[in-house]
Amino acid sequence: MAGISILRDLVSGGSAGASSAGVLYEDNAEAIIRQSELAALYQFWIDKKSSLGKLPCRGDFSPLELTRLLPHIALVDVDSKGHSPEFTFRLCGTQIAEDSGVDLTGKTWSQFPNSDDVIKRAVTLTQNLQPYYATNIQAKWAPKNFHHYSVLALPLSKDGDTVDMILYGIMFHPFSS
C-alpha cells in the first residue's frame, strides 16, 4: 500500500515505520489493514485519487457509494486560517458515536481532553497530504475510554493541494496484542 503512513501501535507510543504488534507488515514493510471495512475505504479512496489524478474532495463521491461503511465514517473540516489548524466534525457515523459514547458532530478535537496526539496526527496529515492507518489506539478522548480503536485517515482537498477535510474510518475494539 504505497503512499500510506503506518503508525506503530500507539498504545505503547511507538513511531512510524517500525514493526509492532499493533500493525502487521508484509515482507516489503507495507502494512496490511486488519479491518475489512477500513481496507475497503482505503481502496475506495485510492480508486478515486487514481481516476482523478489528484486528491479527491468530498464532492467527488456520494454517500451511496459508501453505504455499508457510513456507520464507521467521520468527516472533519480543516480550518487552517488561524494560528494552528482547527478540526471540526461535520459528520460522525452512528457506530462511532455508540462505541465512543459521544456524537462528535459539530465538535472540535480541541474540545476533548487528551486529544493532543489525535491533533498532532491530523496536522501531520494536512502537511504531508498522505493518509495514515494506526491500530490499537487507546481512546483517551472518549467517555468510554476503556475502548481502543483502529483508524484510517484520508486527506480530501478541493484544489488537490490543500487538505480542507479529513475522511476518517474508525473501528472500535477491545485491546489486542
Q: Could you characterize the architecture of this molecule?
A:
By secondary structure, the protein is an alpha+beta fold. It has a single domain, classed as Beta-Lactamase. It has three helices and eight strands; from the N terminus they run E-E-E-H-E-E-H-H-E-E-E. It has helices spanning 36-52, 94-100, 116-128, and strands at residues 5-6, 24-25, 31-32, 73-79, 86-92, 132-138, 148-156, 165-173. The strands form two sheets. The chain has a six-stranded mixed sheet with strand order 1-6-7-8-4-5. It has a two-stranded antiparallel ribbon with strand order 2-3. The radius of gyration is 15 Å and the shape is globular. Residues 8-30 have low confidence and may be disordered.
- Give the CATH architecture: 2-Layer Sandwich
Backbone CA Rg: 15 Å
Helix content: 10-25%
Number of domains: 1
The CATH top-level class label: Alpha Beta
Secondary-structure element string: EEEHEEHHEEE
Specify the overall morphology: globular
Main sheet: strands, sense, barrel: 6 strands, mixed
Structural class estimated from helices and strands = alpha+beta
* Quaternary state of the chains: single chain
CATH superfamily: PAS domain
